[in-house]
Amino acid sequence: MELTQLPVDVLVMAMQFLDVPSLFACRLVCKRLADLALRADVWRHQGFRGGRDADGTPCACAVLRLAPCLRVLGLRLPIRGCRRAYASTSCAAEVLTLQVAEGRTALQAAQQLIRSQEALGRLRGIRLVFDGVLAPTEASALLETVALTTGLTTLDMLPSYECEPPPVAVPSSTSSSSIKRFRCELRRGTLDFANFVLAAHSATLEKVEFYTVSFLKRLTSNLLGGMPNLRELKCPALPGLEAVAACESLRVLELRVPPDQRSAASAAKLLQASVQLTELRLNYMFHFGGADGVGADLVLALASSGRSRVQALTIENFVVCSEDEYPYLQPLIRALPSLPALQRLKVDGKPHRLLRAIRPATAPALRSVDVGALAYGCAHEWVHGVTVRTVMSANPSLHMKFAASEAVCRDIYACSVCNACARGCHRELLECVASEHGADGYNLGLFSHEPTADCSHRHFTDDNCRWVHVPQSR
Q: Which residues pair with 347 in a beta bridge?
């Protein structure tokens, strides 16, 4: 059977996997494929970012004129020569991603495009990235258009690092509450608009993410604390954030902890009162002793109530530093007995003391611990080390994950090979080297219970993790 003789639904299903240039090429094959290439079912999962590239991507004009719909339409404004196309297009996008250059022309083009996409009825998400200096009047008009757009469920407003948006006028009105996810860079020029979005969409917001916050108004914290459906919040820990503890629906919290006492005190109050959390991520930036461990004991504030429901805890340091600059490990060891619901733990730093402290009595619910990357050495040697043998023997239900640059000694016949590799056991680690993966290191998982035992973890080796059985008798 020839390709063109296949049923319509089969052809449409296959064409959904083609990229935009290939769909345009189908129009030149035969009339049947030309007709199918313009069907909405073929295009509704497509993403397109405008501009003619070296790989032959069609220009925005052709897509806006011929495609009936898109999942994502990304454009850098203004588009030279395509103004008429994006103003009068019938191509309905579900998500609109606009990189808006400086100048009034780009801001006006973005405003016009958002209005035309709203009229087409599929628009559910807007992502605005601002470059350069913004004209206050046109920027205010654009943000008011965004505020009045009906049916949005996601909104991202991300000025570039070089762009400092001027203060914009807060819209005088808004559409009905619909936005569920809001991401924004909180700067002096965007804070009032961000607060406006929080207030206008308080009834529906479920996820809020703030970046590069250098200041925070009490109003912002109060708005977050009063949201009835907010489930996830990502933001820096800044003074005043403790008001968010009033949000009873909040379950996932990610805090970027700056090295200052006021921020740490605010974060401690928030964690002490937030007994509703089930997942917490603390991101630090300790480096070269400059932070003096400020905020390192936040996990003790989380545990202080004795009522913590946190099931997943991640504590990481985003700056490469020496092993002595992970001051949060000792407070974590002290906090473990007061975190009875903790099931998944991820940390970085030198993990030996932490692993030795994990016992069924101190962490009864803990089933998975990820210790990040080994500082150096052979993973096979570490697996046979005292620390791993001790923690796996004491916790038969525990699963341990780690990353290593070397799974085994490179030359197992060399005189410098470690004792573990010389034994020739754990063939799974040798298979790591034999596979094509591992140029950037290896992600490994360890478990000690019987492979056939009933377990909630899937010990399935794939590109993300290779599991190794470590019998307790070893």
A: 315
